[in-house]
């Protein structure tokens, strides 16, 4: 590198231009990272402050102690977050597992077999992607009322299982890459279609399954609208609706409120920190499929 | 069992429940929505009257609906801005750069955070008296801003939150699009003497076209459907200034039990999304 710089006239100038361009790139990206991370840091600082500290100190100042968990404990108890996290966990677990079962079964049928209904199913799934789900909630809510499921945990679960199609796209993408010759050689040995699905296809779909479970868990946990419509009752509160109820008149007790906000934020942030790869993968494969 | 019978059995047992769910919670509500929009059903009583297009007429004659729709335009324009910023970040991050993973992760981070939690965080950040943003402004000698109380500013504050939340998501899709372009294409173009600008026009842009289209669909129709921020933070206030089309629809059936009217609003939204998608296809992609 250095030798080249010395040999070519004007190269040093060019080098300088690259350094400046590089610096500019870092500045732009740092600026936005700062916009994301600094507000979150202020929230963390505030959540560790005592009431007096919150009133007396600047919002930007560090708390006296990062071991003052009083706000977290108080928020957890007063907001009944134990029930809330339990309900969120049920939604996430049933929703994610159900999605995997349904998604993999439908993808297997759609990719490996030809049948009359196939093109209609494809059409319905495409339409479902374009139709705004918020709009449909008016009539879904009416259906749920008819089935007497409003105000139960079954309503959101049924919605999570039936109307999301991203998982099907992810499975189809992976399924296309699994060679049909594997199925064929298993058939020569007399394996049933179900056996092929269970012992060959499903294991090979494992990376897709991991991606779908993580992505779906985050989506369900973060969903506000469905949970607000169906799970606002006291004993049915989820992390999201519990936080909404907790805010109420605590809007001016920002240190306590910050702790509650962080309690709700932490689970998905933790998942993201450890499983970034799957989330990025899920988002790109789930969207790019045409 | 022959493979033919097996196939039948498998298709029935694998598809029955998924299709039942799809039928019950997508197809049926989908058609039911149109039907409901021509009635005055209140969601409680079993009987209702057919009112023809009355609900639709009311949608277009309610001034508040137009205010809401105008606010959605701000979110849609915000979506365009989001695409520009995300595209810029994606370009910056596709070239080799130190700290690439850090930037990618931190810019994307807001997308996976709980939407209600984000909304309440911004309620704090935007606070008139004790909010950090106004603290900075005051220290710079600027008058504090009523981010959530000023009728002219509130929509921009709320749209700004969605910019904060979704720019990273859009960026990740653009990065994936750039990576899907085969680098050999650039190499052979370079041999043919193509410059950077030519590369961008003839290789990069066509290569990411699908993703640009997808991102625009997501952000523009997302702007039309925006409601989470005003729903949680301002409830559409002050005095209806931050209402959006979907928020108005939600209130119509959850607060006022006007299912027929809400259904008509939802149908209008659906049509608007289709129109927006069609315009986007025609204008930007010259219809393929």
Name of the CATH homologous superfamily of the largest domain in chain A: MetI-like
**Strand share of the residues of chain B?**
under 5%
Largest sheet of chain A: none
Rough outline of chain A: globular
H/I helix tally of chain A: 15
Q: What share of residues of chain A is helical?
A: over 70%
Secondary structure class of chain B reads mainly alpha
Terminal-residue CA separation of chain A: 44 Å
CATH topology of the largest domain in chain A: MetI-like fold
CA gyration radius of chain B, whole angstroms: 24 Å
The second-level CATH architecture of chain B is Orthogonal Bundle
Tell me the structural class of chain A: mainly alpha
Tell how many strands the DSSP assignment of chain A holds: 0
Task: List the defining traits of the structure above.
heterodimer; A: 290 residues; mainly alpha; MetI-like fold; 15 helices; 78% helix; disordered N terminus; B: 288 residues; 12 helices
Task: Give a written overview of the molecule.
The complex is a heterodimer of chains A (290) and B (288). By secondary structure, chain A is an all-alpha fold. In chain A, 78% of the residues lie in helices and 0% in strands. Chain A has helices at residues 2-7, 11-47, 51-56, 70-78, 81-112, 118-130, 133-146, 154-162, 166-177, 180-188, 193-204, 206-222, 225-230, 239-247, 254-288. Chain A folds into two domains: 2-56; 79-288, MetI-like fold (Orthogonal Bundle). Chain A contains 15 helices and no strands. The longest helix of chain A has 37 residues, at 11-47. In chain B, helix 3 runs antiparallel to helix 9 and helix 11 runs antiparallel to helix 12. Chain B has a single domain (59-285), classed as MetI-like fold (Orthogonal Bundle). In chain B, 73% of the residues lie in helices and 0% in strands. Chain B is mostly helical. Classes of the chains: A mainly alpha (290), B mainly alpha (288). The interface between A and B is large, with 88 and 95 residues.
């Amino acid at each position: 590198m250095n030798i080249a710089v010395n040999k070519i006239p004007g190269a040093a100038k060019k080098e300088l231009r690259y350094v400046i361009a590089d610096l500019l790139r870092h500045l732009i990206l740092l600026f936005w990272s700062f916009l994301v991370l600094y507000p979150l840091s202020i929230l963390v600082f505030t959540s560790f402050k005592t009431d007096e500290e919150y009133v007396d100190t600047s919002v930007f100042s560090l708390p006296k102690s990062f071991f003052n968990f009083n706000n977290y404990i108080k928020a957890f108890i007063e907001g009944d977050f134990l029930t809330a996290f339990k309900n969120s966990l049920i939604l996430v677990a049933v929703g994610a597992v159900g999605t995997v079962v349904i998604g993999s079964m439908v993808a297997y049928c759609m990719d490996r077999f030809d049948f009359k209904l196939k093109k209609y199913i494809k059409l319905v799934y495409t339409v479902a992607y374009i139709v705004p789900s918020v709009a449909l909630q008016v009539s879904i809510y009416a259906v749920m009322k008819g089935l007497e499921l409003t105000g139960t945990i079954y309503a959101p679960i049924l919605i999570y299982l039936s109307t999301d199609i991203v998982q099907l796209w992810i499975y189809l993408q992976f399924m296309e890459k699994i060679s049909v010759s594997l199925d064929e050689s298993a058939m020569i040995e007399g394996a049933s279609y179900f056996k092929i699905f269970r012992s060959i296809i499903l294991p090979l779909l494992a990376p897709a399954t991991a991606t779908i479970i993580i992505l779906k868990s985050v989506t369900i946990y973060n969903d506000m609208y469905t949970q607000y419509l169906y799970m606002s009752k006291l004993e049915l509160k989820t992390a999201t609706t519990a936080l909404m109820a907790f805010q109420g008149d605590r809007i001016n007790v920002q240190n306590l409120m910050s702790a509650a906000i962080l309690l709700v934020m932490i689970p998905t942030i933790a998942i993201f920190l450890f499983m970034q790869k799957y989330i990025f993968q899920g988002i790109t494969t789930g969207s790019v499929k045409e | 069992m022959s493979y033919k019978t097996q196939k039948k059995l498998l298709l029935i047992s694998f598809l029955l429940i998924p299709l039942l769910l799809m039928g019950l919670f997508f197809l049926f509500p989908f058609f039911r929505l149109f039907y409901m929009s021509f009635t005055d059903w209140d969601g409680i009583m079993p009987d209702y009257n057919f009112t023809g297009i009355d609900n639709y007429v009311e949608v277009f004659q309610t001034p508040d609906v137009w205010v809401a729709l105008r606010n959605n335009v701000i979110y849609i324009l915000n979506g365009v801005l989001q695409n520009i910023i995300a595209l810029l970040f994606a370009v910056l991050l596709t070239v080799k750069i130190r700290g690439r993973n850090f930037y990618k992760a931190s810019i994307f981070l807001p997308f996976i955070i709980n939407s209600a939690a984000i909304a309440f965080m911004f309620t704090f950040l935007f606070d008139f008296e004790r909010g950090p943003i106004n603290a900075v402004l005051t220290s710079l000698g600027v008058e504090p801003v009523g981010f959530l109380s000023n009728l002219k500013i509130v929509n921009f504050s709320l749209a700004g939150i969605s910019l904060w939340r979704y720019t990273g998501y859009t960026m990740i899709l653009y990065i994936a699009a750039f990576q899907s372009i085969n680098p050999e294409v650039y190499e052979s173009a370079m041999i043919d003497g193509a410059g950077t600008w030519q590369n961008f026009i003839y290789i990069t842009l066509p290569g990411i076209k699908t993703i640009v289209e997808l991102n625009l669909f997501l952000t523009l129709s997302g702007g039309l459907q925006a409601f989470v921020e005003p729903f949680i933070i301002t409830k559409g206030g002050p005095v209806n200034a931050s209402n959006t089309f979907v928020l108005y629809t939600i209130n119509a059936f959850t607060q006022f039990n006007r299912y027929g009217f809400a259904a008509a609003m939802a149908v209008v939204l659906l049509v608007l999304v289709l129109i927006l998608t069609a315009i986007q296809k025609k204008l930007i992609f010259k219809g393929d």
